[in-house]
Amino acid sequence: MIDLHSHVLAGLDDGPAQVGGSIAMARVAAEEGTRRLVATPHVNETFHPQPSEIAIAVAALNVQLARSGIALDVVAGAELALTRLVELEDAVGEGYALGGGPWLLVESPYSPEAGDFDRVLVELARRGDRIVLAHPERCPTFQRDPARLRKLSDAGVLNQVTADSLGGRFGIEVRRFALTLLRDDLVHVIASDGHDHHNRPPRIAQALDAVAREVGGLDARWQWLTEAMPAAILAGDELPAAPAQVTRGTLRRFLRRR
């Protein structure tokens, strides 16, 4: 598997404070079957890591992992707040791209008063920016109006759902919405959003066990969600077509219940 979203680098954001925590996270990921982990520290009003800092930290961590015998490749990226993304010059923004490819990971806002941020994302996508939207299932705006997320997907924005959301860590409503998005082909990547090795570890595979019986055809889509799509995103390759879904129409039922 390829984990496209993690906070594994020590001291750059709200991930581990020391490199020992980074190594412990990497060990958890490798033991679960993750072979590549993208380090995506927050870039927002609180945390301001520069692309060069991230690259240096990634290189140093890979050296430590090799010495520790942990078979995991860490690559650079970032999780950008939309407010920071629109402020960055193009050359700087490109330095935060996932794995040095063309795609940027942008954080979905948690505030119910986020306004028309999705309109800004559509405009960025139309000008050519390639955006992966982190954990939209936790965004109050999309929970209230899922059709707005559909419009973003129609504009070319990809959606990354967090494995812990499917497992119920963030509550029943978030889990239910994440399942709805899966059933309606609005999930393109499943990632861990791991922050440490014990409370929010970089685990992905457990999500399959948590929801396989509830989402028809998920077994067939799992490789696409956790390997094929992340690999294409990192390489900047043409995105592979999704396997056919078994169950559709759930988004319309979700909307009728709101």
Describe the SSE topology.
Blueprint: E1 2-6, H1 19-32, E2 36-39, E3 42-43, H2 51-68, E4 73-76, E5 79-80, H3 82-85, H4 90-94, E6 103-107, H5 117-126, E7 130-134, H6 140-144, H7 146-154, E8 158-162, H8 163-167, H9 172-183, E9 189-191, H10 205-211, H11 218-235, H12 250-257
Parallel strand pairs: 1-2, 2-4, 3-5, 5-6, 6-7, 7-8, 8-9
Helix pairs in contact: 1-2, 5-7
Describe this structure in words.
The protein is α/β, with parallel strands linked by helices and 258 residues long. Helix content is 45%, strand content 14%. The strands form two sheets. The chain has a six-stranded parallel β-sheet with strand order 3-5-6-7-8-9. The protein has a three-stranded parallel β-sheet with strand order 1-2-4. Helix 1 (19-32) packs across helix 2 (51-68) and helix 5 (117-126) packs parallel to helix 7. It is globular. The chain starts with a strand and ends with a helix.
